[in-house]
Amino acid sequence: MTLKQHDCITCQARHCSILETCNTDILTAISTNKKSKKIQKGERLFSEGDIIKGIWFIRKGFLKVELNGQQGRPLILRIAGRGAIFGHRLTTKHIHHTNSATAISDVQFCYIPNNIFAKIACDSEALQQQIINQYLDELKHTEKKILELAHKSVKEKIADALLTLAETYQYEVKKQSFKITLCRQDIADFVGTTKEQVSKILKDFEKEGLIKCTAKKFNYLNIPQLRLIASTHT
User: Fold this and answer.
1) What is the pLDDT of residues 145-184, one digit of tens each?
2) Which CATH superfamily is domain 12-149 in?
3) Domain with CATH 1.10.10.10 in the chain
4) Strand order in the sheet with 107-113
5) Model pTM?
């Protein structure tokens, strides 16, 4: 669905994206060539194996970024929200997406064709540096994910997942609660375990006073204690 166009200069989402340090000329060039769109919860932004044809800047909403896994279950690499970017490649060559992105809420985003974005980026060293930094951040995240899957127990991985979700959904103790857009199976795919294991450990955490939750709503998280559990093997 196409939406009313948004100006990059006044867009609040750019302040948490790679466009944060871009000058007015670069932002104007991107604004002129992009389209503002929307997808609904459950829709795919792109699929693993698709040719990268353009750049997506996420303005609002959340997506799960996942790989095709074993036994028919995907592995969720991360949850992406406002300010996230996909398809950022400084080349017009045919490169394929190595993962998929599926909306777990309604998502608003801006899209610009790859060849146009590459030309604009060539005129901005600041934007090129931000793209490099984004690559490095994604590499570090992937390395961390591999280590966690290899060395952490399920309990440690779920504690770490809760901390990640708390950060993603901007949990604050004084607000007392936050609602996630992931089901128990999604959390299982996020840590590489089963839905039953997730439910069991969440119940254990609740008995220990580490969390209070109902369905997809977390009313309380004991952040310090969850950090201790999550960092046992780090």
Assistant:
1) 888 888 899 999 999 999 998 888 877 666 667 788 888 9
2) Jelly Rolls (2.60.120.10)
3) 152-230
4) 35-39, 107-113, 54-60, 85-86
5) 0.86
